[in-house]
Amino acid sequence: MTAPLAVGLNAVIVAADTEAPYALITQNAHGSPGLPHGRFDPAGHRTFERALREWVQAQTGFELGYVEQLYTFGDYGRELPQADLEDAPPNARLVSVGYLGLTPERTDISAFRAVWRDWYRFFPWEDHRRGRPTLIADAIEPALEAWAGTDDQRIDRMRLAFGLHGRPWIEENALERYELLYEAGLAGEAVRDRSALESVSGPSPSVFGEPMISDHRRILATAIGRLRGKIKYRPVAFELTPETFTLSELQRTVEALLGQPLHKQNFRRALDRSDLVEGLGRQSTTTGGRPAELFRFRRETVRRGLALGVPTPRA
Amino acid sequence: MTAPLAVGLNAVIVAADTEAPYALITQNAHGSPGLPHGRFDPAGHRTFERALREWVQAQTGFELGYVEQLYTFGDYGRELPQADLEDAPPNARLVSVGYLGLTPERTDISAFRAVWRDWYRFFPWEDHRRGRPTLIADAIEPALEAWAGTDDQRIDRMRLAFGLHGRPWIEENALERYELLYEAGLAGEAVRDRSALESVSGPSPSVFGEPMISDHRRILATAIGRLRGKIKYRPVAFELTPETFTLSELQRTVEALLGQPLHKQNFRRALDRSDLVEGLGRQSTTTGGRPAELFRFRRETVRRGLALGVPTPRA
DNA sequence: CCATTTATACTCAAATTGAGCATAATTGGC
DNA sequence: GCCAATTATGCTCAATTTGAGTATAAATGG
């Protein structure tokens, strides 16, 4: 009577530099991108976190540091193709628990079937560092409008999610935006899941961003939103930076994660007041221009209990 | 080879008035308090949320409104006594998914085996509305100190969690505080779980707050922390208030949830600027003193996209 | 009708934010 | 070797927000 259950663990492992934020991506047998993942074996694993660390280590050679749980998905509508379940019992229902891991540098993983990928490849509409991507006005907005029709609730959701009609763009809402596109049939996964369920394959509409296997892009969107929110009130940014860095490097890294430019002077001033970083006196040999001072993260400040995030003054 | 898995769903259903915050509490066969819960049956349930709504309806007669997922626990150390698993396969490992539900009033549930309980009964150290509870300095601090001994990391965790030695009390950290007490053997559940695993029953040390079945108090602590954080940046407070309310009622309700007094004038001013509420011109017939104006929540403001929380200026 | 209680209004200094302009120290042509 | 371009860093100032106090208004209950 009760159908079998399987718990899948999925890891979004994030690194970032001044250029872009990266996620660790694996490939399945068909070469489709996905997240490092595996099944949770209740007999062999004491906790989710341990199981996750073990899987990630095996699949990518990567040793996880900072880890936090994201969300547990169990929807029927997103039931997975059997191919993704490997050794699960037939017809097993998958419950997937997503985790976020942060790492200070893109460690070498060349020996494994995993690569670091700029996460905006999967979410091209999320990068507003050089202004709002034209993709939104040119393609996403018209496609969503066609989907919404005269349904007021759909129109509302669309405007709020994508910051249309004078609403502000809220970078934390990466999941809402992806789910909206999925619902509107504008994500490759939606096309795939529907044809699998209904065995119909009508004319494929235009879809946005590179799709991933299973519901992995949804988990990645959850991670992006969570990290973007958390960076503002907890010093997680320093889990992603090297030991020493210049203020510009830190700022560009944060901008890459938020997909949003920040106001330089105000960023520095607020950081100064926060006591989160400490100048080292040493200079960095930068590419062109005046050399910048090197800084380090003051872990002591966090232990004093105030635990603030990095400032994010809008530019 | 793979042990059976069961997914348990647990609901923290919260109501609040100017006196206290309440959680909906059920009782097991032995009269021990717990949260409304049930197993997720993958065959019968499409999504976690639907299953949850069904269970809660059956156990408490309660119709859930606002719902959000909290956290998924899967630790081995907190394995549950078989009694709590009811119709699960023997030796099943329980994965428990916690949900938070909010409701504007304490609806009548007298026909069911469920009651509304002031949540501070389970967490007496969390209510700082009338100053820091003396329980902390009198009993918790010495007990934790005895546990920490000279272990610097333990001393540090203790001070940060409970705001000792000049650290600020951070009301969101309800889970950290409970887990610390559990680890230190100062929660009734810890005593119970240890004796179940080790079959020893030494002298029971003093424990704090009323224990709950299974890991339900841990889930309740998660809910408290989450709600306390969210109330500051999303207008969830209005999911808990009646249609119309006075500003004082709103303030006292928020204070009850945070366990923290707020600065009256600044609370009003910030609320004013936020556009979250709108005066109705009508007066409330209060108990004693000048009558207060009635207000209502402006849902329209949220739809305009700014979606701020209620202000929480420290008193 | 007066003391008490509660609500609401007003004020003011301190701190923070937003956004500009000015100056310093490099590199890379020419 | 000098000048332009580039990047880092410093300084200023008005506008806004915060923190916290004082004053006034409108009820209730002896």
Tell me about this structure.
2 copies of one chain form a homodimer. By secondary structure, chain A is an alpha+beta fold. Chain A has 3 domains: 5-122, Nucleoside Triphosphate Pyrophosphohydrolase, CATH 3.90.79.10; 124-198, no CATH class; 235-303, Arc Repressor Mutant, subunit A. Chain A is built from 9 helices and 10 strands. Chain A has helices at residues 48-60, 134-148, 152-162, 174-183, 188-198, 216-230, 247-258, 264-274, 299-303; strands spanning 5-16, 21-27, 33-34, 37-39, 66-73, 93-102, 114-118, 244-245, 277-284, 292-297. In chain A, strands 1, 2, 3, 4, 5, 6 and 7 form a 7-stranded mixed beta sheet that branches. A 3-stranded antiparallel beta sheet of chain A has the order 8-10-9. In chain A, helix 2 (134-148) runs antiparallel to helix 3. Chain A binds chain B through residues 1-7, 40-43, 45-48, 69, 71-72, 74-77, 93, 95, 97, 156, 159-160, 163, 167-168, 170, 303-307, and chain B through 1-7, 40-43, 45-48, 69, 71-72, 74-77, 93, 95, 97, 156, 159-160, 163, 167-168, 170, 303-307. The first copy, chain A, binds a DNA duplex (30 and 30 nucleotides) through residues 246-248, 263-266, 268-270, 273, 285-293, 313-314.
Secondary structure elements and pairings:
Two copies of one chain form a homodimer.
Chain A: E1 5-16, E2 21-27, E3 33-34, E4 37-39, H1 48-60, E5 66-73, E6 93-102, E7 114-118, H2 134-148, H3 152-162, H4 174-183, H5 188-198, H6 216-230, E8 244-245, H7 247-258, H8 264-274, E9 277-284, E10 292-297, H9 299-303
Parallel strand pairs in A: 1-6
Antiparallel strand pairs in A: 1-2, 1-4, 2-3, 2-7, 5-6, 8-10, 9-10
Helix pairs in contact in A: 2-3, 3-4, 4-6
Chain A binds a DNA duplex (30 and 30 nucleotides) through helix 8.
